[in-house]
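Bumping my old thread because nobody answered last time. Still need a sequence for this structure:
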């Protein structure tokens, strides 16, 4: 099937599958007692065995990027840093009371918002407050998201001392017209400078986030952005499809939708970038991600040990994730819990000495099994069917996979399937074949919930 026909058929509104079941199927106001019991049971099982992942959500930004769908708070008042730090440490203490033993931190990620909004001194206090009551796993992996305009050598040097070796910079696009439209002005010189600083200090993996589908993007502009990116040569590249969901994120209404590239143009932008990445030595290792062969992410993909959670792709298969901060999500392996999305509500709960989780989902055995199928799709590109799921697979999943096989997206066998190169861009659609919650729902319309696949 031609790319144009594939686009016409598969360019539907589909989740990004950072979780299964997806957030629309989660419940509001989950019982605090049930969440605590699930947390304790899974923590005790997994802490000593493999350690835990820790995500800290730092929501503040100094300016508003109009494409952004993250939970953020815009402020130029840096006095908010101390208050937020104090609340995060209170939340950490509340969870430690539930743990009853010293946590072993295997993974740590600072996300946002803009983590480098916080001064190096404030971040140092935060990390000291957490590390003094935890054990750091000898094979730990720590990463941070940084803005090229405000990440300083002081930030990087301090983080390096705490064991951070990965940094991800939000680049998005280098075209000045596009940058003005999305209100993210950052000269390429800034990007190159912070990349060189990170490497000089000792960071071993630098990632660039790029987005296709932004207003005023053209093939010529995209080619220039990719060429400049390749010249700087980050170790990893996350190449995201812009998710235009203005009904969820009102800030996206600040630019004219008529200035967005058409789906056909977005397809061309993606194919152009993928070709340029491949020629430059970057390997397509999964949903939206490319890596050089020397990077640990590529090695994990090659060894079939790649993992994916709310923090993105990971080289460590850690199944217990604790999220701290406003809107942060935790994943115990058998349950999801999300904190209040509003700062005032989040502060109020923690100040009362109560956990801030107010939305979540408890997975049954079938949920957990089909979550693993989706992880196989996104992390390995190869899925092996399990005999005990034969009835469900034949009723709901395999008919959709058979259709995709006819279109050349997968190579389907009796025991499973493998994603083709043509199917990589439609990985979200392939994941949806295992989404029993969606397949069994009375209303399968997701037009006003998720972004388009392309």
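Sorry it took so long. Here it is:
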């Amino acid at each position: 099937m031609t790319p144009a026909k594939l686009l016409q058929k598969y360019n539907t509104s589909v989740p990004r599958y950072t979780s299964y079941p997806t957030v629309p199927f989660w419940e509001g106001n989950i019982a605090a007692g049930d969440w605590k019991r699930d947390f304790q049971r899974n923590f005790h099982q997994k802490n000593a065995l493999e350690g835990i992942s820790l995500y800290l959500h730092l929501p503040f930004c100094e300016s508003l990027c109009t494409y952004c769908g993250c939970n953020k708070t815009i402020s130029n008042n840096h006095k908010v840093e101390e208050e937020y730090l104090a609340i995060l440490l209170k939340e950490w203490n509340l969870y430690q009371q539930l743990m009853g033993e010293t946590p072993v931190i295997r993974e740590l990620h600072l996300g946002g918002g803009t983590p480098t909004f916080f001064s190096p001194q404030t971040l140092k206090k935060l990390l000291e407050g957490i590390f003094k009551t935890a054990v750091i796993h000898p094979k730990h992996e720590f990463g941070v998201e940084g803005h090229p305009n405000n990440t300083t050598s002081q930030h990087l040097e301090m983080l390096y001392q705490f064991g951070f070796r990965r940094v991800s910079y939000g680049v998005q696009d280098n075209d000045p017209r596009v940058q003005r439209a999305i209100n993210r002005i950052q000269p390429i010189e800034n990007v190159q400078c912070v990349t060189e600083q990170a490497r000089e200090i000792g960071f071993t993996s630098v990632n660039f986030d790029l987005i296709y589908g932004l207003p005023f993007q053209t093939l010529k502009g995209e080619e220039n952005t990719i060429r400049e990116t390749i010249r700087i040569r980050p170790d990893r590249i996350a190449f995201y499809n812009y998710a235009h969901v203005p009904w969820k994120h009102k800030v996206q209404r600040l630019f004219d939708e008529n200035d967005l590239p058409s789906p056909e143009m977005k397809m061309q932008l993606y194919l152009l970038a993928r070709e340029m990445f491949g020629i430059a030595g970057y390997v397509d290792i999964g949903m939206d991600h490319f890596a050089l062969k020397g990077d640990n992410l590529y090695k994990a993909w090659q060894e079939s040990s790649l993992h994916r959670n709310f923090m993105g792709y990971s080289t460590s298969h850690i199944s217990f994730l604790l999220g701290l901060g406003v809107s942060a999500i935790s994943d115990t392996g058998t349950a999801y819990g999300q904190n209040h999305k509003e700062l005032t509500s989040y502060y109020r709960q923690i100040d009362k000495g109560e956990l801030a989780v107010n939305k979540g989902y408890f997975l049954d055995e079938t949920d957990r099994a089909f979550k693993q199928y989706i992880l196989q799709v996104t992390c390995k590109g190869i899925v092996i069917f399990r005999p005990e799921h034969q009835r469900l697979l034949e009723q709901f999943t395999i008919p959709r996979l058979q259709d995709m096989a006819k279109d050349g997206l997968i190579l389907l066998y009796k025991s499973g399937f493998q994603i083709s190169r043509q199917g990589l861009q439609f990985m979200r659609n392939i994941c949806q074949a295992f989404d029993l919650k969606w397949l069994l729902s009375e209303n399968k319309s997701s037009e006003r919930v998720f972004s388009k696949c392309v």
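The chain has 15 helices and 20 strands. Let me know if any region looks off to you.
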